[in-house]
Amino acid sequence: MNSLRLSLFALLLMSSVAVAEDRVYLRSSADSRTPEVYVGQIDDYTGQTLKMTTLSGRSIEIPAAKVASVESEWPEAMRAAQALFAQEKFAEAEIAFQQAYRAEPRGWVKRMLIAETARCRRNLGRNDAAGEAFLALVASDPYTPYLDAMPLAWKTGEPDVNLHRAAIAWLEKTDSPYAQLMGASFLLSAAERTKAIAALERLKSAAPAELALLAEMQLWRTEPPARDADKTAARRKQIEQLPANVQSGPRLLLGDALARDDQHEQATIEYLRIPILDNIDRPLAAEALLRAGKQLELMGRPAAAKRLYREIITDYPAAGVIGREASSRLEQAGGASP
Asked: Is the pLDDT score of 212 beyond 70?
């Protein structure tokens, strides 16, 4: 009787394992109302191709550009880490993602966990450590789909000692366009600015398409302020060529260009796209909200500006300097209380 129960238990266990399925959702075409879905087991997923064994046992390859999202049986450790990230407990989330990484056997999920670790470090302001994690990611997959995990500077600010040292080392990695892009990005605000500009010019001409475009957008930071509506419109189109998850930084620069042209309402809209569309880079989102608030003040809408400042204080508790400026502007702004 005991052996019969053990056999039944084994069969049930095998059945539960078989039920565990991965789902791959493809991007909807213009004439399709529902996304196409493949079900089975993901064998590998890189920035080029997703390889899968379907429920019927057929092996298929799907171009990564056609993949909208994937679902899988995520381990409990990974779900716990994601919950910590959602609560903005980035230090705890980083540790949890690393624990999940050590226990995870699937290579494509391990790369996902490295990307999550890099995102945690970015949100903690540890861009040097985030960059090292990202380079480990591209060493495993040179065509990574997780470009949003790459730390880049999109506003002026001299890097701290650790980041400065790391950026110099990255710039010297002539065999890695990812490393050079990161290094040049942070060194645009340092003594090595001339070397950084030269590296970005090379990347703009020779790097893979998305990196070349990001390099060109970094060079926007070096140009003198100018009012040029045609150039601004052209740059908006360039931004839209990028994957949605890496558009936020360039959109901050686009908002700045519109603000310089006294297009305060359009600048505000561009800034507000960032926290609406990007919930990953929290410091950048807080910066965008602050700049949008300033534009609203210039338009004579202090009550609306106050709402944004209060949002920074309430929803971005780790915003640091940005949060303190939001508190100061909240007290100083005129108009009715939000």
From this structure: yes
- Sorted by where each begins, the domain ranges of the chain are 152-220, 223-338
Residues 44-76: tens digit of each pLDDT: 999 999 999 999 999 999 999 999 999 999 999
Give Cβ neighbours of residue 334 (< 8 Å, ≥ 6 apart). Answer: 302
Q: For residue 103, which of 122, 68, 78, 83 has the smallest C-alpha distance?
A: 78
CB atoms within 10 A of CB 58: 10
Whether the CB-CB separation of 139 and 111 falls below 8 Å is answered with: no
Retrieve residue 2's tokens: 């005991």
Question: How far is the C-alpha of 212 from the C-alpha of 197, rounded, in Å?
Answer: 13
Domain covering 223-338, topology: 1.25.40
Structure tokens at 213: 């475009």
Q: What is the pTM of this model?
A: 0.88
Q: What is the pLDDT of residue 335?
A: 54
Q: What is the CA radius of gyration of the chain?
A: 23
